[in-house]
Specification:
Structural class of chain B: mainly alpha
CATH superfamily of chain B: Sodium/glucose cotransporter
Largest interface: A-B, 36 and 45 residues
Number of helices of chain B: 18
CATH topology of chain B: Sodium/glucose cotransporter
Radius of gyration of chain B: 23 Å
Order of helices and strands of chain B: HHHHHHHHHHHHHHHHHEEEEH
CATH architecture of chain B: Up-down Bundle
Largest sheet of chain A: 2 strands, antiparallel
Strand order of the largest sheet of chain A: 1-2
Oligomer: heterodimer
Strand order of the largest sheet of chain B: 1-2
Chain lengths: 73, 513
């Protein structure tokens, strides 16, 4: 069972990941590190973070919102 | 290195895939559920790679690098957001729920699942027909890509039509024999092969040009704006339109959607969900960087005239046998998409159209035979159509442009199904009429806006408005149609009442543990 607050937390985390997948704050930036654009490194790092967040979700909250009874009212 | 050797590598690869298919065939039971879904037994590695390989297509090796060559590598971000994040979430929201329902009720297709809940075989057939309408051009897209790849590899010694026919014939044989289990196994092989070849190509080129410094120096001269994020081509609106509409479209593609039913257990679904973003980065970063690097290395590719940049880049920097391996990887990408599409197309046709509208008494054993016939007809028809398309476009032979155009339309078309289906899965007041309208209306509008010529219309007070344009305020028309589908599904459901045959509990109470 997952509390409503935690459910909102997961939803927020996923939305933040999606919003940050493209680094809008680096728009027009051409800085390179080790020959590759900084924005590309950011993206790669963020996708790694996303995999960690997804993994944590499967451990703690899998089923929430999908399976009836997965969420505590 | 002779054409004969290159062909031998490609043919050798095809035979290896066929051998895997034959082993799977020996294990296949003669039931429809086994032929279409391998009796729902996929473990993590197989489900992950079969879905991944199925998603990938000629675009990974040709269309994508071509775009990165012309406009810069930002497409990597689009793919990451689309396949790594949005699709992963839909994997949970749509896929996991479908899996639960399928486990409880034994569904094999999306149409079947909806038809069962809404008590309507007409709805079931409608969903199948809409899906087949978009699937067909997408199969053509793979065949066009395969024919072009073989023609480029052999410098025309194997002409386009022969290459497309060879690949199609090969796929028919192994889809008919192997069914879902064989396809998934070859997908696993193909996915691993693609990853290995694309990284090897990247490293090989890095070593032979003495590192990325040379490439960036070249970029600074030919395309100094490439490394800066964003451009006139990569606007936020365009990137988001593609990421959102393709991610939603992917979930409704029959060959991906059917895989939601095929997982062995919840654990498999959990692991694949968490591994998505990693796999996406591992494949698309090197594949699309190669396109941009070709620009920095001064490779001259006339994309508009139908050339693809990746084969040209490889011809310049790697030995011919290795280039042949990468092209075999590209063919693997196309085949792993097409074989699954053929099988799913056959499943949709036999189960949802033929069985519901033509002959409801088909036995399980006859159905799996009928499915195999469906594969042959579907693949053969698509081959004829793609040969015809290429003959018509003979002046330019613009393979890349054709690929991107048709492919984009198909994804957008499937995306129109996603929101009505999600509403049906999660909102118990959805009615049969509401869902039917939600499926039909956005499809019609989407088709109209893509196929009718843009027409300026004078509106009182607003001035000239262009009807049937491809985008408004920078946002693609597929997004507007998706929003329309959502509104229609909810609005019509609210205005109507459930028919007596509907059974909402199938998607809700019946799933409680």
């Amino acid at each position: 069972m997952v509390s409503r607050a935690e459910t909102s937390g997961w939803a927020l985390a996923v939305l933040l990941l999606m919003a940050a997948a493209i680094p809008w704050f680096l728009w027009g930036d051409a800085t390179t590190i080790a020959g590759l654009p900084l924005w590309l490194w950011w993206h790669v790092g963020l996708m790694g973070l996303a995999a960690l967040v997804f993994y944590a979700f499967t451990r703690r909250a899998w089923g929430v919102g999908v399976r009836p009874g997965g969420e505590r009212p | 290195m002779s054409t004969a050797l290159q062909l031998a590598i490609v043919v050798g690869y095809l035979l290896l895939a066929l051998a895997v298919g034959l082993v799977a065939y020996r294990l296949t039971e003669r039931t429809a559920e086994d032929y279409y879904l391998a009796s729902r037994t996929f473990g993590t590695v197989v489900l992950l790679f079969t879905t991944f390989a199925t998603l990938l297509s000629a675009f990974t090796f040709f269309g994508g690098p071509d775009i990165s060559y012309l406009y810069g590598p930002e497409w990597i971000l689009v793919m990451g957001l689309m396949d790594g994040l949005i699709f992963a979430v839909l994997w949970y929201v749509v896929g996991y729920k479908q899996w639960l329902i399928g486990q409880a009720r034994g569904h094999v297709t999306l149409g079947e699942m909806l038809g069962d809940r809404f008590g309507s075989s007409r709805l079931r057939a409608l969903v199948a027909v809409v899906s087949l309408f978009w699937l067909f051009p997408y199969v053509m897209l793979q065949q066009i890509g395969a024919g072009g790849a073989l023609a480029a590899l052999t410098e025309g010694a194997v002409p386009y039509w022969a290459g497309a026919t060879l690949i199609t014939g090969f796929m028919i044989v192994y889809v008919v024999l192997a069914g879902m289990r064989g396809i998934a196994w070859t997908d696993t092989l193909q996915g691993a092969f693609m990853l290995a070849t694309v990284w090897a190509a990247l490293l090989w080129i890095l070593v032979s040009v003495d590192g990325v410094g040379t490439i960036n120096a070249g970029l600074a001269e030919t395309a100094p704006e490439f490394l800066a994020l964003g451009s006139d081509f990569y606007t936020p609106q365009r990137m988001l339109t593609f990421a959102v509409s393709i991610a939603f479209g992917v979930t409704m593609f029959p060959q991906v959607n059917q895989r939601f039913f095929a997982a062995d257990s919840e654990t498999v679904l959990k692991r694949t969900f968490a591994l998505w973003p990693i796999l996406v980065v591992l494949l698309f970063v090197p594949a699309f960087l190669l396109g941009t690097w070709a620009q920095g290395l001064g490779i001259q590719a006339d994309i508009a005239a139908g050339e693809n940049v990746l084969p040209l880049l490889l011809a310049e920097y790697v030995p011919a046998w290795f280039a042949a391996l990468v092209i075999a990887g590209a063919l693997a990408a196309m085949m792993s998409s097409s074989d699954s599409m053929l099988l799913s197309g056959a499943a949709y046709y036999t189960r949802d159209v033929h069985r519901t509208l033509v002959d409801p008494t088909v036995s399980d054993d006859r159905e799996s035979r009928l499915g195999r016939i469906g594969v042959v007809v579907f693949a053969g028809g698509a081959l004829l159509a793609s040969l015809w398309v290429e003959a018509g476009a003979a002046g330019g032979g613009t393979i890349g442009a054709v690929l991107v155009d048709i492919g984009d339309l198909a994804f957008g078309g499937f995306a129109q199904l996603a929101l009505p289906v999600i509403v049906a899965l999660y909102w118990r007041r959805t009615t049969r009429t509401g869902l039917t309208a939600g499926v039909v209306v956005p499809q019609l509008v989407y088709v109209a806006f893509n196929f009718l010529p843009a027409t300026p219309v004078g509106l009182p007070g607003l001035g000239d408005v262009t009807l049937f344009a491809g985008a408004y305020f920078g946002w693609g028309v597929s997004l507007y149609c998706m929003a329309l589908g959502l509104l229609v599904t909810v609005g019509v459901s609210r205005a109507t009442t459930a028919a007596p045959e509907e059974d909402a509990a199938l998607y809700f109470e019946d799933l409680a543990d």
